[in-house]
Write a structure and sequence with these properties.
Number of helices: 14
CATH architecture of the largest domain: 3-Layer(aba) Sandwich
Largest sheet: 7 strands, mixed
Order of helices and strands: HHEHHEHEHEHEHEHEEHHHEHEEEH
CATH topology of the largest domain: Aspartate Aminotransferase, domain 2
Low-confidence stretches: none
Helix content: 40-55%
CATH class of the largest domain: Alpha Beta
Bound molecules: glutamic acid
Number of domains: 2
Strand content: 5-15%
Oligomer: single chain
Mean pLDDT: 96
Number of strands: 12
Structural class: alpha/beta
Radius of gyration: 21 Å
Shape: globular
Strand order of the largest sheet: 2-8-7-6-5-3-4
CATH superfamily of the largest domain: Type I PLP-dependent aspartate aminotransferase-like (Major domain)
């Protein structure tokens, strides 16, 4: 048989989704497993959003829509960008896609040429690297300092082939938030060198300090022209299954992504789009409730992790992940995760999937009871087996 696509054969399946699938399968088999795998809020989608979907079905809003999204949703997104990020975008700058992941894939395909370089601070979300490769570009891995992105380190990674910098703040998997002074330096660097910034803002609402999320696009007209904002409703409104994400960029890039999408998926699901209009325009109190709960869980899980032998964990400022260092156990992150799942029935994601083998990732978007149970098991596991 002739070989399948080289480009697709070289990608590895998403580790986050693979571990989530394994965890759900174990649950189905009746196993008493605790999952810290996929980053998926444990809250239900708010009722007003569900009602908007029912209403859309009843009204027959179940047919093709404009490829890049209905005007009502684009207007709701533009209003959100103004209200929360102090940015002016219009309908033609916005493309609605089937989740943030799809929006990011559109950006990679529409922006990158073979051989272009994209600077990717490590650790990075598992999907970025593969999407860059699918677009036949090169991911240039760039170190961070104590899990913080630094402009100086990004600058050192720039070459004449650098096309874009990937930023994700708050960050998946570390939860770290880029310091404002660093963000300003990165903005200046990118604008001066005419490098695009792909700004994945999906965790913007989950920052636990008093700081407000600052979109790099809001730091001046120069950088705004080079920024592609990527966002999604999945985390903010606990709508992971609905698959609604979007980009805000220039109308030229938006038009390219719209053309691409017209041959890929067509529009995102019409019903989910109407639900998204309600999510963005309706009451926002569910977001605050989730944030409060995540904030409490964050403190609890970090405290418990730091009490365990051979584990050290920084207090993340945002998102809903912790990224403890387990290198003192002498195990690779993959070995650690395999053993933790097999011997203690606790599912976590190896840092190796995010380009960092010294750490593991735990999502604390699950109940405090689950966290306590999982931490008890992990502590026992480490006391019994975790010595170097
Ligand atoms: N983004 C979430 C995570 O990192 C969901 C799973 C995925 O799409 O990777 O766990």
């Amino acid at each position: 048989m002739k070989p399948f696509s080289q480009r697709v054969r070289q990608i590895t399946p998403s580790a986050t989704l693979a571990i989530d699938a394994q965890y759900k399968q174990m649950l189905k088999e009746g196993k008493d497993v605790v999952g810290f795998g996929a980053g998926e809020p444990d809250f239900d989608t708010p009722d007003n959003i569900k009602q908007a979907a029912f209403a859309a079905i009843k009204k027959g809003q179940t047919k093709y829509t404009a490829v890049s999204g209905i005007n009502e949703l684009k207007d709701a997104i533009a209003t959100k960008l103004k209200r929360e990020n102090h940015l002016d975008y219009s309908r033609e700058d916005i493309v609605v896609s089937c989740g943030g992941k799809h929006a990011l894939m559109n950006v990679c395909y529409a922006l990158l040429n073979p051989g272009d370089e994209v600077i990717l601070p490590v650790p990075y979300w598992v999907t970025y690297e593969e999407q860059i490769h699918l677009a036949e570009a090169k991911a240039v891995l760039c170190p961070t300092e104590k899990l913080q992105i630094k402009a100086r380190l990004i600058e050192e990674a720039i070459t004449p082939k650098t096309k874009a910098i990937m930023l994700n703040s708050p960050c998946n998997p570390t939860g770290s938030v880029i310091e404002h002074a660093e963000l300003k330096k990165i903005a200046k660097l990118a604008a001066d060198k005419e490098i695009f910034v792909i700004s994945d803002d999906v965790y913007e609402h989950f920052i636990y300090s008093d700081e407000e999320h600052v979109s790099i696009a809001s730091l001046g007209e120069d950088i705004r022209r080079y920024t592609i904002i990527v966002n999604s409703l999945s985390k903010t409104y606990s709508m992971t299954g609905w698959r609604v994400g979007y980009t805000a960029s220039t109308k030229e890039l938006a038009s390219l992504m719209g053309n691409l999408q017209s041959h890929q998926t067509s529009n995102p699901t019409s019903i989910a789009q109407w639900a998204a209009v309600e999510a963005l325009n309706g009451p926002q109190d569910s977001v605050q409730l989730m944030k409060k709960a995540f904030g409490e869980r964050r403190k609890f899980i970090v405290k418990r992790l730091n009490e365990m032998p051979n584990v050290s964990c920084l207090m993340p400022a945002g998102a809903f992940y912790v990224f403890p260092d387990i290198s003192q156990t002498g195990m690779t992150s993959m070995r650690f995760c395999e053993r933790l799942l097999k011997e203690a029935n606790v599912a976590v994601v190896p840092g190796a999937a995010f380009g960092d083998d010294k750490h593991i990732r735990l999502s604390y978007a699950c109940s405090l009871e689950n966290i306590a149970k999982g931490m008890d098991r992990m502590e026992t596991f480490l006391k019994q087996h975790g010595q170097p």
